């Protein structure tokens, strides 16, 4: 796959989605060759797998534009996004299905780049692609490429994640800087030149999640990754789901200076900007500093921070103390801040 | 769901894919309300399930146009297609994930119709929708709605489907009339008026497959559904995979008269026209008539027929004896006969 693969076409044609010879050629030369493993090699309509534990399943379609961006592309994103959703359930991701909807005219070289990026991200995340599908739609009926991945993971034997366990004074920790993914896409899309380069934070979070579960087991009460809608929307959802309040301090939320500056320049609230390498966890006050320490010692949690706590005051509301000491209610995102961010 | 659900909009907006309040509203009022079950009701990023047996997994994206057609719609098709792919592995389908990519401007009433159709087809097929995703793309960047379903089924305890088991003289049986789905779509799409109405054969095949496995167990050597690419392409793939020849008789292939006439009129070879309610099975000669009998007694196999056999002559080739006695090689479909047929 290092060299350009010759499938006899420079762009994808409708025939590549026909189910006939062209489809078989595309699959054999690119997909099966790249992802070869005993499951996929069956080349059947489906794949047969075995699990020892309960399984977490999650699905996501990726429609991001542009398809290549600083810090990743739609391929790596489609792996990280679903791997992380499975991990957020308290599971160890093992397998992914992979389905493409390609717009006629996509450059074959771009398709190969995306497939290679999927392979790399899957290898790094420790998951196998076990079954897939490829469809092609006419020019103007899609947008280059959409990808669906569905992920399967074995539940971590110590995991007992449940919002029922969340109590007053429990502590909310995030692992990393927020708003990077959304601002990277924004700058790529709009051709904005910020002083420094903002890169998407798209990455896999499953190893850090596993380490946390290995160490703290059922003392971890929740994992959640604030992707679309951002941290603000997810905190609001949590407050709603647990019928308790959430209190956060603006100055405690980790954000890179250049990202904060870019948000300010564009009039965007970083609380609603999408993330792809961020998750939050809720744990009891007693173990919070230990959890924080473990996260900071991990490559995916170096900038972890305690951002707030759960309270019985203002149930179902998120209240944020601002940098100048004022308090405001954080509402959920209404409408669309940045369409097609993932 | 019988009455029109009011989500405050007549068409889908980009904000419905934001992950914010509009998304939540759409999900709560339409998706969660329709599919409510203990798995989905967790409203988490994923769902946790348990299986007793090995699992078969299959994924498919559906991009059919038009989205409503005689005999079904993109919603029922997205259920049947994946349920059948899981069944073809020798498994009992249990769960589906469900992911929408909606083009901005889709009528909410059409979306609701599709969701209801998914619900009905899922109920009839005995599967639960356990997790999902909804994305919205701008007008002109999609085509009304694309759906991905990924299906999970428990392997039937008696199933031992493997092409390794296929021997010379094994018999090939199909369950029903071919070419109906493709010709139904064709007539809808082109506004063709055939003398009588051709309906898509889109339906679930999992119950008939289960009955066959209950009765004949590991004597069933293969199931395969010839969807895209049609019967001809699938037979060619099988011949290739088993490195043996396949011999079929044109007059033995079940096809409705009006479908055959429509194909002739449009110059289409029914062997390459898509099916959605057809599967073929390969069994030893000794049990072929029993298998045929069981199929004919089942609502999904009334028109079952033995269409040919496996031979050591002409390995990797499919040879068909035509209605007038001549013989021709059936090549796989090259290019695209009917784009976006599923």
Automatic annotation (TrEMBL), chains A, B:
- Which Gene Ontology BP terms does the record give? protein maturation
Q: Record's superkingdom?
A: Bacteria
Which regions form coiled coils? none
A single Pfam family it belongs to is AIRS_C
Domain PurM-like N-terminal: start-end pairs: 45-155
> PANTHER family annotated for this entry?
CARBAMOYL DEHYDRATASE HYPE, HYDROGENASE ISOENZYMES FORMATION PROTEIN HYPE
Please identify the protein, giving its name as recorded: Hydrogenase expression/formation protein HypE
- Please name the source species: Lutibacter profundi
Organism classification: Bacteria, Pseudomonadati, Bacteroidota, Flavobacteriia, Flavobacteriales
């Amino acid at each position: 796959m290092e060299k350009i693969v010759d499938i006899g076409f420079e762009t994808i044609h409708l025939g590549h989605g026909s189910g006939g010879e062209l489809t078989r050629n595309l699959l054999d030369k690119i997909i099966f060759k790249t992802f070869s493993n005993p499951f996929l090699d069956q080349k059947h309509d489906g794949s047969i797998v075995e699990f020892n534990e309960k399984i977490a399943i999650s699905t996501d379609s990726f429609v991001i534009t542009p398809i290549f961006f600083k810090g990743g592309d739609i391929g790596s994103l489609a792996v990280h996004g679903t791997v992380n959703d499975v991990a957020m359930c308290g599971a160890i991701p093992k397998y992914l299905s992979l389905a493409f909807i390609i717009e006629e005219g996509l450059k074959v070289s771009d398709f190969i780049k995306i497939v290679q990026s999927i392979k790399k991200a899957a290898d790094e995340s420790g998951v196998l692609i076990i079954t897939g599908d490829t469809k092609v739609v006419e020019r103007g009926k899609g947008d280059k490429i959409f990808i669906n991945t569905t992920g399967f993971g074995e539940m971590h034997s110590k995991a007992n994640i449940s919002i029922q366990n969340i109590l007053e004074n429990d502590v909310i920790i995030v692992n990393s800087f927020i708003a990077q993914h959304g601002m990277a896409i924004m700058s790529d899309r709009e051709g904005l030149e910020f002083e420094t380069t903002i890169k998407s934070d798209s990455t896999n979070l499953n190893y850090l999640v596993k380490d946390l579960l290995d160490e703290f087991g059922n003392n971890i009460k929740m994992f959640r990754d604030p992707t679309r809608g951002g941290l603000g929307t997810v905190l609001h959802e949590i407050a709603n789901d647990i019928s308790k309040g959430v209190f956060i301090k603006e100055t405690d939320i980790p954000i890179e200076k250049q990202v904060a500056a870019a948000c300010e320049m564009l009039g965007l609230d970083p609380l609603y900007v999408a993330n792809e390498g961020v998750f939050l966890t809720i744990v009891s006050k007693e173990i919070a500093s230990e959890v924080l320490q473990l996260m900071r010692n991990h490559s995916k949690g170096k900038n972890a921070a305690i951002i707030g706590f759960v309270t019985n005051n203002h149930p179902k509301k998120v209240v944020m103390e601002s940098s100048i000491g004022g308090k405001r209610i954080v509402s959920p995102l209404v409408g669309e801040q940045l369409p097609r961010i993932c």
